[in-house]
Amino acid sequence: MRSSSVKAMWSGLLALGVLAALVLAALGVPVRAEPGPAPYLDPQLSVEDRVDDLLDRMSLDEKLGQMTQPERRYITPEEITRYRIGSVLSSGGSAPAPNTPERWADMYDGFQRAALAQPLRIPLMYGVDAVHGHNTVVGATIFPHNIGLGASRDPALVREIGAATAREMAGTGVDWNFAPCVCVARDDRWGRTYESFGEVPELPSMMTTIIEGLQGDELGGPASVLATAKHYVGDGGTAGGDDRGDTRIPERELRAIHLPPFRAAVKRGVGSVMISYSSWNGLKMHQNRYLITDVLKRELGFTGFVVSDYNGIDEIDGESGFTRDEVAAAINAGIDMVMVPTEWRRFIEYLRDGVKDGDVPVSRIDDANRRILAKKFELGLFEHPMADRTYLGTVGGAAHRELARRAVGESQVLLKNDGVLPLDDDDKIFVAGGGADDIGVQSGGWTITWQGEPGPITPGTTILEGIRAAADSSTAVAYGRDGTGVDGSYDAAIAVVGEEPYAEYHGDRTGDLGLDADDLKAIERLRAADVPVVVVLVSGRPMDVAAELPGWDALVAAWLPGTEGAGVADVLFGATAPTGRLPVTWMRDGGQQPINRGDGKEPLFPFGYGLTYD
Ligand code: BGC
């Protein structure tokens, strides 16, 4: 344990010092009392005492710096020292070059050294979106997106995934994760539906075990990173599934559907909470003092700190950029740290003016600092600020990939099976579809880049490679992306189709949720060969397939499995029995959106549906 070994070291040093003083005194050598290190640097003191001591020593500018989070591309190490910056982030896809784990660790250490060069030596926290593994790092293990984990109904598995993600992060130095998203996605047209563990509060609440995995039994243990429950609150409830839109529901419903996962996250000791871009009944969450201060901090008893979303304070008045009033409104609402990627100098200036003019009380600045500093102490950053490179070898390591493969297997949902599945390993198989042989497509958004992209973007096993490995080596598995080449000699044909990668905002769909023309054409070719057709859907949400389904012999919802495509093959060949169950209601047609458990609408497959093998 990091903190206990440090404590032991300190008591040892203290004892040695006392002994030396006694010896010197006995020899008649005069001993002069030197001022010891400041109390806040003493890990034997309580976090509360350390925070008190440190806060007493801080100037206003030092306090403002702790509340400011620039993006790595828009700040230099020298500026971190000069402006007393307390945190830096990598936004989606923002990586050092070359994008290797070692380079990440070097980058982190460089920023950290700059923070430690400030007079009070306050370490910084570095935040990333490791939302399905340490996903911005090439070579990291990419786990299934949350929607698939919700299908697994396995909170212990999700805890293990959190711990594995934390290890991969720790090796690169990154100590803060903007995850988990505990949103309750109510309208599948929303482009962040796959970041949700499911459409009912029970699922995200149950999967807050991931927080225990990320943070460990307590912050500061080995490979422990700070987790973030996001996006507070109601992000998944916006009208029309509009990203950053308005959640127009009464408070009773907000509390019944969207609040419970945050309550669960707070119970599990989550260190930070990120505010949602969305509004609640027309009021931007970034200025909602009632929900942030009264409900989250007071009623739920959240003692960690609240971070804004990326440029989130800009959205308060609906105009681009932020004003002094928006800064004051956000801080007074209870936001403790502001993600202010580029305009961080102006943010500091506005906040300083706000404090000087009395618009933002000093007590609010102190409260924000207490919350932030407490987490830095708890994380053990004052004692161990640099990257723990002993974990570098875990990045994309075999044990983590094995765990991811198991998670993929557990997340597959078998929706239809006319008897073609499981396949026999000596079956002659034809594989088609744009998702069959593409790591980028099967990983989805938030993979290496923000929106994700097709192609061999990071090492892994494609679904086709998984199928090839599962099939008997003497049986050639044929592949034709668009279905060309299939004929009646095959025992089965598998079409891996669905959605191309997307993330927030860009992923909103307003029209239908059907398959595109290329996918439909490929499936048609397979069907025309008169062989049983298995459709494997790689998508971030249910798709509108009701019209085509009668012509398919089997349908598997694979969600966005990540780098370990062998987990899909495990289910297709029966090495793993399908046990996944729908975490969302599957619409009969796109016009039914929003459709959710218990709303009286007639779905194609209800929430909780999932077949297995006999
Ligand atoms: C997203 C957050 C994310 C942040 C930092 C925002 O656009 O809404 O979920 O944590 O960017 O990358």
How would you explain this protein's 3D organization?
The chain is of the alpha/beta class and 614 residues long. It has two domains: 97-385, Alpha-Beta Barrel (TIM Barrel); 400-592, Glycoside hydrolase family 3 C-terminal domain (Rossmann fold, 3-Layer(aba) Sandwich). It contains 20 helices and 17 strands. Helix 2 (47-57) crosses helix 15 (362-378), helix 13 (324-333) packs across helix 14 (344-356) and helix 16 (398-411) crosses helix 20. The protein is globular, with a radius of gyration of 26 Å. The model is unreliable at 1-32 (pLDDT under 50). It binds beta-D-glucopyranose (BGC). Residues 91-92, 129, 178, 230, 309-310, 504 line the site of beta-D-glucopyranose (BGC).
What are the key terms here?
614 residues, alpha/beta, TIM Barrel, Rossmann fold, six-stranded mixed sheet, 20 helices, 17 strands, 10% strand, globular, disordered N terminus, binds beta-D-glucopyranose
What does the secondary structure layout of this molecule look like, with pairings?
Layout: H1 2-26, H2 47-57, H3 60-66, E1 68-69, H4 77-82, E2 87-89, H5 101-116, E3 125-128, H6 146-152, H7 155-171, E4 176-177, H8 202-206, H9 209-215, E5 228-232, E6 246-247, H10 251-258, H11 260-267, E7 272-275, E8 279-280, E9 283-284, H12 289-299, E10 305-307, H13 324-333, E11 338-339, H14 344-356, H15 362-378, H16 398-411, E12 413-417, E13 429-432, H17 439-443, H18 463-470, E14 478-479, E15 492-498, H19 517-528, E16 533-538, E17 554-557, H20 566-572
Parallel strand pairs: 1-11, 2-3, 3-4, 5-7, 6-8, 7-10, 13-14, 13-15, 15-16, 16-17
Antiparallel strand pairs: 8-9, 12-17
Helix pairs in contact: 2-15, 6-16, 7-9, 7-16, 13-14, 16-20, 18-20
Bound molecules: beta-D-glucopyranose.
Beta-D-glucopyranose (BGC) binds next to loops.
